[in-house]
TrEMBL record:
Protein's name in the database: C-type cytochrome biogenesis protein CcmI
Protein's UniProt keywords contain Isomerase: no
Record bears the keyword Cell membrane: no
Top-level taxon: Bacteria
Keywords for this protein: Cytochrome c-type biogenesis, Membrane, Transmembrane, Transmembrane helix
Gene: ccmI
InterPro entries named in the record: Cyt_c_biogenesis_CcmI, TPR-like_helical_dom_sf
Signal peptide: none
Residue stretches spanning the membrane: 85-104
Lineage of the organism: Bacteria, Pseudomonadati, Pseudomonadota, Alphaproteobacteria, Acetobacterales
């Protein structure tokens, strides 16, 4: 059994060993993010083709991936990597040994997975905390720092639970206590998901008044116009966005794809 575990550990660590012993060309965070997000978009396309995602879910997931790609930093140039250190090689060898030792000392191989009742209880506890937060914020002043942060937290929780309209309501209260371009973009995204493009444009316009070159808001502006059926306006927005963007902008392909999808 222990020999099998050791072989499995070695197999799992073999890609890491290869990366350490023969390091590839270094990649910056922006380049890695771009590769990841393009892979996620390809996976969404495959799931839609297989019938595992309907059109509404596909569009919602695609917008979320594109939002993160727009927020990703531009690729940067890095120096070539040096040789792996002896300490790193020693750590690579000691990881499986330490894992086996800890497993023998503290592991519980016979422990069953959480039951449905346990998961439902945890879900109910989360819901109770959100309800408590909602009750505390009923009389909170969004113009105070504590109140504003509370409404942002509530909006995050509501969005994670899939209650988009409630998330928008909470974030709008937070924006009433102090306008933030990033948060306005989050609200605009959800309004587009809820098929309320005019509401989204209201927040996009306010954000662009402060940061007229923000690529995320400009992209969302074109998306809202397209959802409203104004393809000509959307085309003009995205065309200008591409004209102003650097040649290596990681989100260029997304905008070009959206342009091709217009009527």
């Amino acid at each position: 059994m222990w020999l099998a575990l050791g072989l499995v550990a070695a197999l799992i660590l073999s890609p890491l060993a290869y990366a350490v012993l023969r390091p590839p060309r270094p990649r910056g965070r922006g380049e890695a993010d771009m590769a990841l997000f393009h892979a996620q978009l390809a996976e969404l396309e495959a799931q839609r083709a297989e019938g595992r995602l309907d059109e509404a879910a596909f569009k919602s997931a695609t917008v979320e991936v594109q939002r993160r790609l727009l927020a990703a930093p531009a690729p940067e140039s890095l120096n070539a990597p040096g040789r792996p250190s002896l300490l790193l090689l020693a750590a690579l060898a000691l990881v499986p040994v330490a894992g086996v030792v800890l497993y023998v000392e503290r592991g519980f191989p016979d422990m069953p997975s959480a039951t449905l009742a346990v998961r439902q209880e945890a879900d109910a506890q989360d819901e109770a905390m959100i309800t408590q937060l909602r009750a505390r914020l009923a009389t909170a002043d969004p113009n105070t720092q504590l109140g504003r942060q509370g409404f942002i937290l509530l909006g995050n929780a509501e969005r994670n639970r899939g209650r988009l309209a409630e998330a928008v309501a909470a974030w709008e209260k937070a924006l009433g206590g102090g306008f933030d371009v990033g948060l306005a973009g989050d609200v605009a995204e959800i309004e587009i998901e809820l098929n309320r493009p005019e509401n989204a444009l209201r927040w996009i316009t306010r954000g662009l008044a402060l940061q007229p070159q923000d690529p995320r808001l400009r992209f969302l502006g074109g998306l809202a116009e397209a959802r409203a059926g104004r393809d000509t306006t959307a085309r003009a927005i995205w065309t200008q966005l591409l004209a102003d963007a650097p040649a290596d902008a990681p989100w260029r392909n997304i905008v070009e794809e959206r342009l091709r999808g217009l009527n």
